[in-house]
Amino acid sequence: MVYGSITDYSSYADSYLSNYPRPSFLGHIKRTAPIPPQEEEERFEAKRAAHANVWLLVPAMTGTVAYYLFTSIFRGIRQREEEDKAVGGKIGSVVYTGIVTAGLSAYIYSVLILADGHLMDVYWPIAGAITVQLLYFAAVYTWLYRLDYSSFSAEVEDEPIEELLTFLYFSITNFATTGSSVFPESITARLLVGLQVLFLVFSFTMGLVFFTNP
Prior knowledge:
Blueprint: E1 22-23, E2 29-30, H1 37-52, H2 58-73, H3 83-115, H4 123-147, H5 160-176, H6 187-212
Antiparallel strand pairs: 1-2
Helix pairs in contact: 1-3, 2-3, 2-4, 3-4, 3-6, 4-5, 4-6, 5-6
């Protein structure tokens, strides 16, 4: 691709004739190549797509709020007291979490596809999606623990803040695969943890593919 002569640099975005070449923050001379109009358009499309596809994050954001509300409203529910309701809540949690994971994965994929190798241009949208995912899984873990204390091998005081911090910590360490003092014991808990790990594998693989093959 031919960028043109130095006298044409002022016609490109992010290029300034007056300081070309210019010193970088390390002090050495850095020659800044102009951004061609087509590449600038691609970057704009990637950012626009990140905003346009935010609806894919709605299930995760809605579920985060809903599960925290459910945990607060139905704080007295125990498995030994209302087993049928607990079973229904567990099945619903797994099904809805599958929908949430699919939406988050679709959002990450759509953003990376349109980024066309310019990953730093979509850093914040991807970081935002991962943050929403961490908060959602913390909420659903807390809700599951409230439904059935035996779902996790964790001794948590009956305090909303402590429960939230405990399972937010578990969500982060599970996503980072660093290990935690909290372990999933029930089938439902293991399915939820598996879905979060699958999202990690998908995100890491997609990021690696687009980073190494821009």
